[in-house]
Here is the input.
Amino acid sequence: MRITLLAGGVGGARFVRGLRAAAPDAAITVIGNTGDDITLFGLHVSPDLDTVMYTLGGGISEEQGWGRAEESFTVQSELAAYGAGPDWFRLGDRDFATHIARTAMRTAGLPLSAVTRQLCERWQPGVTLLPMTDDDVQTHVEIADTDGTRVVHFQEWWVRMHAKAPARRFIAVAAEAAKPAPGVLEAIADADVVLLPPSNPVVSVGIILSIPGIADAVRDKVVVGVSPVIGGAPVRGMADACLTAIGVPTTAAGVAAHYGAGLLNGWLVDTADAAAADAPELAGIAVRSRPLYMTDVPAAAAIAAAAVDLALELSR
Ligand code: FO1
Here is the structure.
């Protein structure tokens, strides 16, 4: 079976790790969000691709959900001693090596997709990991606070401001001119099943879908999503701040209605949200409820298996 996913960071990575356990013989392709990418200290940092790569490769910091396990911070404290910032985005020594290697390969002329393939040679994630695009697309956030209205990089809003400054809109800068990375449209077209993991629907999955051609390709497939919202709160992260900014209620039904029946065929919600099955705005979407907390790999595997089962049921 061929399974393709559109994934963001921690929620996407943990879901894919469960899927790999649940479907060990499946050919899994992960299309990762690169809108979160940022250049720091002259280095190309790609948080969502790295989170998937480290999680599946066994190198992730399980406590944080991002960055490397057994990390130290000598390089960043040495940089701080020179007054070189930023200090609000923590980069560990082991993680720095990834960004140095990525930047060196890109400077030598390799596109991000080829660089990602090369980095995965080390981590052997057991899936094909593709960036959504090789083009430079960055997510920016228009915020309005006491300093007025301005636009900041997504990471500045998310990490430095803890998503506290009210967001007015998210801008996928240069997305309209971007092309899907090699293999992305093929991985969607050839998939038996397309899954949307419990990733941020706005700044992860939404940004991937903003790359021309990807949403149309996904709409042609049987698509099952897993709600990132349980009982009216995001399972992880600050997705509520993103949903509120675009006028979508932070509910399991609200997120599914935002994706819409044109994109989504099936939707898994937590048992706490079982009433979503009767929500009139979800007409045309098959809703199933089951426990959705990914407390460990077996729990994530059971959720992933349920998503695949629903997709297969809807394919018949
Ligand atoms: N998240 C934080 O909250 N604080 C950090 O200092 C931070 C550093 C960081 C470094 C590398 C990396 O791959 C991810 C990192 N993250 C950090 C996570 C990241 O900012 C976001 O959670 C994702 O971009 C959203 O998916």
